[in-house]
Structure formats: C-alpha cells, structure tokens
Write a structure and sequence with these properties.
The chain is α+β, with helices and mostly antiparallel strands. The chain has a domain of 38 residues. Helices cover 17% and strands 19% of the residues. A two-stranded antiparallel sheet has the order 1-2. The protein starts with 6 loop residues before the first strand and ends in a 24-residue tail after the last strand.
C-alpha cells in the first residue's frame, strides 16, 4: 500500500500558548508557520463494494 496516496492534511489552529510550547520544545524562534494535522486513510480492499470513475468531462444543464 502506498501510504502517501492515503494522507489527509488538515490545517490545525494552535493557540498562542500551544505555539509557544511547540517552538520552545523545538528550540526555535517564532517564525510564521502553519501546523497540519496528518491523518492516514486506509481502505480494506475486501470492504470496497464499487469504484466510481473519475469525472473527466463535467457537464451541467440550466433549467429555468
């Protein structure tokens, strides 16, 4: 399984105190930064019931 295809990244909002603790632990000075929450999404191939093809040519209709 290729784990990099299954990573989810979410921006994590830290409080000033949490940010200070993080940079204090890392031994760095405050720099403008972004912290991400990283999650791994794993699929069990036996539980997949259907695969939907990628939409390659979207279309829409205007009803009025």
């Amino acid at each position: 399984m290729n784990v990099l295809n299954n990573l989810l990244l979410e921006v994590e909002n830290l409080t000033i105190q949490d940010m200070s603790n993080l940079w204090g632990t890392l031994g760095g000075k405050y720099l403008p930064s972004v912290s991400y929450k990283v999650r791994v999404v794993a699929f069990d191939s036996e539980e997949v019931v259907d695969q939907i093809p990628v939409v390659s040519n979207p279309s829409y209709s205007m009803k009025g």
